[in-house]
Design brief:
The structure holds 2 protein chains of 2 kinds.
Chain A (H helix, E strand, L loop, with lengths): L22 H9 L5 H16 L3 H15 L3 H22 L7 H4 L3 E5 L1 H6 L4 E5 L5 H12 L3 E5 L8 H4 L6 E5 L5 H10 L3 E5 L9 E6 L2 E6 L1 H9 L3 E8 L5 E5 L10 H18 L17
Parallel strand pairs in A: 1-9, 2-5, 2-8, 3-4, 3-5
Antiparallel strand pairs in A: 6-7, 8-9
Helix pairs in contact in A: 2-4, 3-4
Chain B lengths: L1 H33 L5 H5 L19 H15 L16 H14 L1
The chains are: A alpha/beta, B mainly alpha.
């Protein structure tokens, strides 16, 4: 049984909102795009550690998640928590600069790509399900480039309209589609019918009857079934894709083997995908950027 | 007499279109009952003015997954493939706009 969202659900501020989602931080990140990337990332990382101390609610949620995911305690857990904020700031900094480079130049920032052949071998449409891991915007752009298909990236409606211009940039085969009305599903179905790609994030529950409880690190957590129903309806495979930042300042892109889905098997496929996510988060715990209690998102 | 029939032709055409749209509307109600599991008694009293998306007062309250299901139902029942680049949302605002859209697609061949 999925817990119900708190009374605030449906209002502008949602449970997954966090202190980073403010125009000042976007302006700051945009203001330092002229710096050499290595220096910019170091600066962003330092600012991220500082900002962590200003966000006690988010820090407590991240600490709790990391304790479950890594089993760490005490100083080790504190260090991991600070590192997550630091790495988030670094990816955030790239969002407004590095991510905007043309696809050919993006590859210069990628150290390794594994599994992209899975997409090459696919014919026709595909639903790519990613998560708030590392630089997910970069994952969408690299995948669009590698798959040579127009890619529709589904995004939540920004709580602050002013942020839209910072984070949504169509082009290079990528088109952002806001989840502002339920009829957006028709746009996505039509795109899949044309053999195009749809990219969605699958790690944030919606707080409605479309969430399904799946065991994640040994505890039930709600995940949205929507991407899996969409793929099943269009009879197209699901591909998990993630892009994480390495200590060397370059990205590692991972594309998982396609998950074949059919009517009635949506929840099983969701569980398989959550298994892939769990493996990745276990490997890179400080690059899963959800600043709320993932097992009970609607508490309080 | 021939002139009179020529004058009446547009009116007959409108009636024919109206009958076709009504038939499509009835088929849409079947899709709502069979695929989206709406109560048949509730479906029977729906009109062309009934809004579809959630968030509109008095609407059927369809969410994104309901729209996927209804689009599959339309493809199955009417043999249409909805792969347009144009925004389909305006056609799915009410039962009447949807019936009109389907009728138009069927007549376009």
């Amino acid at each position: 049984m999925i817990p119900s969202p708190a009374a605030g659900q449906g209002q502008r501020v949602r449970w997954y909102a966090h202190g980073y989602n403010r125009a000042e931080f976007y302006r700051l990140a945009a203001a330092i795009t002229w710096l050499p990337r290595a220096l910019r990332l170091r600066l962003a990382g330092g600012v991220g550690r500082l900002v962590a101390s200003l966000m006690p609610r988010e820090r407590a949620a991240v600490r709790k998640t990391l304790s479950v995911v890594t089993g760490s305690t005490g100083r080790e857990l504190d260090a991991l928590t600070a590192r997550l904020f630091s790495e988030y700031a670094m990816c955030f900094s790239d969002l407004l600069s590095t991510n905007r480079e043309p696809p050919a130049r993006l590859m210069a920032h990628v150290r390794s790509v594994s599994g992209v052949g899975h997409v090459d071998r696919l014919e026709g449409a595909v639903v790519c399900v990613t998560a708030h891991v590392g630089n997910w915007d970069m994952a969408g752009r690299l995948l669009a480039s590698a798959s040579a298909r127009p890619t529709h990236v589904v995004v939540a409606v920004e709580e602050a309209i002013g942020l839209e211009r910072w984070v949504r940039r169509d082009g290079d085969g990528v088109r952002f589609v806001s989840r502002s009305t339920p009829t957006v599903a028709l746009t996505l179905m039509a795109a899949l019918r044309r053999g195009e790609a749809v990219a969605m994030q699958g790690d944030r529950a919606l707080g409605n009857s479309r969430d399904v409880a799946v065991t994640f690190f040994g505890r039930p957590a709600p995940f949205p079934i929507g991407p899996f129903r969409l793929a099943s309806a269009a009879r197209v495979p699901i591909v998990g894709a993630f892009c994480t930042l390495g200590s060397h300042g370059r990205y590692d892109m991972t594309v998982c083997p396609p998950l074949v889905i059919s009517p009635g098997s949506e929840e099983d496929t969701l569980r398989q995908w959550v298994g892939e996510l769990e493996s990745l988060v276990r490997e890179r715990p400080t690059q899963w950027f959800n600043f709320f209690n993932i097992w009970n998102p609607f508490e309080g | 007499m021939v002139q009179l029939l020529q004058h009446l032709e547009p009116i007959r055409g409108l009636r024919r279109a109206s009958t076709e749209t009504q038939k499509v509307l009835d088929d849409l109600k079947v899709i709502l009952a069979e695929r989206l599991r709406f109560d048949t008694a509730r479906v029977a009293i729906l009109t062309a003015e009934t809004s579809l998306p959630k968030g509109i007062a008095g609407s059927l309250g369809l969410d994104s997954l309901d729209f996927i299901e209804i689009s599959l139902g339309i493809e199955d029942r009417f043999g249409l493939v909805m792969d347009e680049r144009e925004d389909l949302a305006p056609h799915f605002q009410s039962l009447g706009t949807l019936a009109g859209y389907i009728t138009g697609r069927l007549n376009d061949g």
